[in-house]
């Protein structure tokens, strides 16, 4: 790591600053400084002593200065990292690597009152139910920030649930999940979510092939009955929702589609999706002597297939497509082939990541079992398609000639997975087996084209890096200052917390040129496995701090019809139906007594009438599994059958004032003597 020159400069600058301060203190300078030199010198001595006592290197000091965020100062960048099988999405400040928020998406989370009775949330969860089962967890992999013109716009973020083929939609006006959609075709997914450059489409690629629509077919019918898929979710920005009726899926051969990326700028209108298991291995380890486990069966071929999908053609065909599976618009493989909706390009070897360069001109593929990254030229792909420079495969899909479309291969090391980009013409690829991040140069129109396709630097990380995320690294205009390695193994990096270890997110400085990569910071992530992350400039985010009006329904983004202002609190009964309109404000609920009968059906609205930033009130009710977080201005509703009699103290779960403990009330449920209770 050639930082020595930089340290020399920092050293000279520091001496210059101290000298200047001393000059000012002694009247030698023109400017009136408010910082007395004695403080500067004192600080210098204390800092020097600390550096010596802790045995810090100059690299350590540089890293500390680069990442330290003084109290009250905000991070300039915000990372949205998937939470893996926690089912959630984590929001992290960069470069301080402070966790700012977890956004609950697929799993109930008590501290944010998510999934414990609130009616709009319950309805949303039901939309995401799987074969009628109320699945309340997910395995989130790839968050995708909404884009305008190929740049993050800070409006929405989408994330997939690999385990159940679902997509979550989060509104960044309040960082809350607004929609869960279940894919009607597939049981699981992986190559999503990612968006087109103006977010008209949220794309979800498949993973393990299966009979479409959840049908049954024996594994011996794999070639004929099992299929891959890619789904195009139509997103309506105004409503902030995916429109099921305008969305569709396309059938693909039973290869295992993996990651995908959207074309941009010159390649806008094309979708790139790689695949593995083009061997169509069917596994079966443990089911007989001849059975070949997937691990080896799916790794036989030297080449798998990059899917190159003509999005505009696909949209046209979908508009007139009659075929449906589970009531969902589904383009059959036959139609896709007849209409030339996609092409294949051979790609080495069990690939994982496919990433489109910032200008949209190159597609970078990493074969997990190949030490190179392979770069394809979009120009060459278009020429090959025009010239019909292809051979059809057994399904009739045109396979473009590898040598005609390949631009370069760069040998980086073992286990390349994912690639990111900066603003200096470098690309970065994670090397899982090497436990390193490689920096290499792009050709074409990028800054380092004179030494194109060359490995420049490798930074060791700890350990076994999966994805990497650079600031605005998926956009047409990456920032090029920080990169985070999302590592799968942490082994010895942190205090021992037992056999289930945290993940390790490592911040890397990519601001310099050449061999200047430097590891800055280790962040343990003990709340799920982040697969992918995206990092946005904080200035692009404009969330509300208080809902716009008292009585706000965050799901409808409008005043709730049951908004309750101070003085409007009441309890009404209609037969066995009891409805409660309650308010909360520091430090009481109104009304504090709710007296009902066992067997009543209860609908209970609570409006937090606070308009002060951070004045959140919780609402916890024992025995009925009710737990809400009601943010300033919000109206929340719960509905339940009062089937258990007794006295139930409800209370506020946020320590909201000195008299927070007094923020309580009684739900008194009189036993129904008729039933003998
Ligand atoms: Cu973990 Cu993108 Cu799902 Cu690679 S994925 S590491
Ligand atoms: Cu409100 Cu505690």
Question: What would you say this structure looks like, in words?
Answer:
It is built from ten helices and 44 strands. The chain has 677 residues and is mainly β. The protein folds into three domains: 3-67, no CATH class; 77-284 and 291-540, Methylamine Dehydrogenase, Chain H, CATH 2.130.10; 552-675, Immunoglobulin-like. Helix 1 packs antiparallel against helix 2 (37-54). Sulfanyl-(tricuprio-$l^{4}-sulfanyl)copper binds at residues 141-142, 190, 259, 352, 417-418, 466-467, 531-532.
List the main descriptive attributes of the protein structure presented here.
677 residues, 14% helix, mainly beta, 6-stranded mixed sheet, Methylamine Dehydrogenase, Chain H, 5-stranded mixed sheet, 38% strand, binds dinuclear copper ion, Immunoglobulin-like, binds sulfanyl-(tricuprio-$l^{4}-sulfanyl)copper, 3 domains
CATH class placement of the largest domain: Mainly Beta
Q: What is the CA-atom radius of gyration, in angstroms?
A: 28 Å
Weakly predicted, low-confidence segments? 8-38
Sheet with most strands: 6 strands, mixed
Q: What is the helical fraction, as a range of percent?
A: 10-25%
CATH topology of the largest domain: Methylamine Dehydrogenase, Chain H
As a percent range, the share of strand residues is: 35-45%
Total number of strands: 44
How many separate structural domains? 3
Q: For the terminal residues, how far apart are their CA atoms?
A: 76 Å
**Can you list the ligands bound to this structure?**
sulfanyl-(tricuprio-$l^{4}-sulfanyl)copper, dinuclear copper ion
Count of alpha/pi helices: 10
Across the major sheet, the strand order is 8-9-10-11-16-15
Structural class: mainly beta
